[in-house]
Amino acid sequence: MEVHVCTQTRFSAYLLMSSLAWAALSWQSSGQPPSDAPSAARAVHKYALANCEIEIGPPSEVGRAQGHFWFSTLHRVEGQDILCEVVLADDKAQGQWPAALHLSRDGGATWKPLAQIECYGPISMPLEARNLLIMPYETWPVSEQDKRNARADGTEVALDENGAIHVQRTPMKFLGFPRELADYPGGEVYLLTNGNILRLKNGPWFTTFYGKFAGDGKDSVWSATSADNGSTWQYQATVAEGATLNEAPEGANESNSVRLADGRLLCVYRTGSDYHKSYSADEGATWTAPERMNGVFCVEPQLARLKNGILLLSGGRPGLYVWACADGEGKIWERVNLAEHHNAHVAEESMQYSPDWCGGKWTDPPGSTSYTGMALVGDNEVLVCYDRLGNGWNGAPGPLGTHDAVFCVRIKAWPNQPK
Is the dihedral of CA 168, 116, 36, 49 positive or negative? Predict the structure, then answer.
């Protein structure tokens, strides 16, 4: 059922009724078992690494569908209420990216479908209590004559205490770029939102984008700040200029950032099949030169710092991994194979990954995008979501299964005690 999104100042009651009807129907049409269905082993598993320990719980199924059901992200609302956003569209430039929202009211243990929204956005920020602003993904020039500034509609989501959702689109601007942005399909500009959102010490919000300036051959990562709760973002600095990355044909793009214990910002970004990193000691105004990271790799990084100092990073491809860093600076990373963990705890063979994918080898079709979502849910724990594909980029059904599916695991980590 189509969900009509409110574009006026008041939230739409009709959207709520449509969303609930869609949720009821989606359980029937997807053939999905309840997310708490029995699995091979529901026990938590501990992984002892050289410098820390990681504890990963059993996967809980967020949802499944035929067609596309992939590129999932997590958005914490309040307390145990968490949204998982899942893309329903093909992976191509298209302006608006239809997506499904699923809700967990118990910290990720169980999930139910909640609503469909007009446009996916990989990141969100808190507004007032129980309200989130989901950023748009693609952007348009503010006018045909002005390509140094961009615009798009974000999605404001309000979840009430009873779990009912209200959605409205809200205009946003991205201003102050030092050069014209390159053209992008559909009359857009090459500016894509991607990085997570942090609060700076002096008050504004901070995030990272990627894109190209007119005439550039490679992607670059830029930082931006907002002083009005995300309605307007101002270009701040270039984190990584694609032209300086000789070994990365596509330059630098998808990124995530954390504040380290010493106060610096660490930004990790994708450079083709690798990750690079840069540091800022002045709240994002300037950044160190890109530095290739050893032992971690590929597609959009998701990054978090736990209260105990452990850094967690998820990604991969081929394969699916979680890495931990106990040095507090992002220098030495140790990994756990999340695809293998998934297989050990999911009994349904059609929802398992192949031995080759678990071994870090390419398969045709791929078993996952390896794009993950990560959200802090406690001082020293995160949720990580990921997809398992039935037919790679073509959408299920296919040789790997009848459905695409998204799963979620809870991860804790702590440093080893000195001997």
Answer: negative
pLDDT-above-70 percentage for the chain: 90
Burial class (CB in 10 A: 0-12, 13-18, 19+), 50: exposed
HSE-up (13 A, CA, CB side) for residue 283? 9
User: For residues 388 and 342, is the Cβ–Cβ distance under 8 A?
Assistant: yes
* Residue 385 Cα distances to 12, 101, 382, angstroms: 29, 13, 10
How far, in Å, CA of 23 to CA of 14, rounded? 14
3-state SS of 314-353 is EECCCCCEEEEECCCCCCCCEEEEHHHHHHHHCCCHHHCC
List of E strands, 215-305:
220-226, 232-240, 255-259, 265-271, 274-280, 291-292, 302-305
- Which residue's entry shows tokens 């409205």? 168
CA-closest candidate to residue 256, choices 154, 174, 375, 96: 375
CA distance 328 to 184: 38
CB 153 within 8 A of CB 188: no
Q: Is the separation of the CB atoms in 362 and 273 below 8 Å?
A: no
pLDDT band of 419, cuts 50, 70, 90: low
Q: Which stretches of 250-337 are DSSP H helices?
A: none
3-state helix, strand, coil in the chain (%, to 5): 10, 45, 45
Query: What is the mean pLDDT of the segment spanning 217-242?
Result: 98
SS3 at position 25: helix
How far, in Å, CA of 255 to CA of 242, rounded?
A: 13
Strands 381-388 and 404-415, by their bridges, are antiparallel
Strands of 118-175 (E only): list them: 124-126, 131-134, 140-143, 146-159, 165-175
Using one digit for the tens of pLDDT, what is the confidence trace for 116-166?
Answer: 999 999 999 999 999 999 999 999 999 999 999 999 999 999 999 999 999
pTM given for the model: 0.91
pLDDT tens, residue by residue, 12-40: 333 333 343 343 334 333 334 334 444 34
What phi and psi, each to the nearest 5 degrees, are found at residue 220? -130, 155
Give exposure, 294-306, as e/b (b: 16+ Cβ within 10 Å). eebbbbbbbbbbb
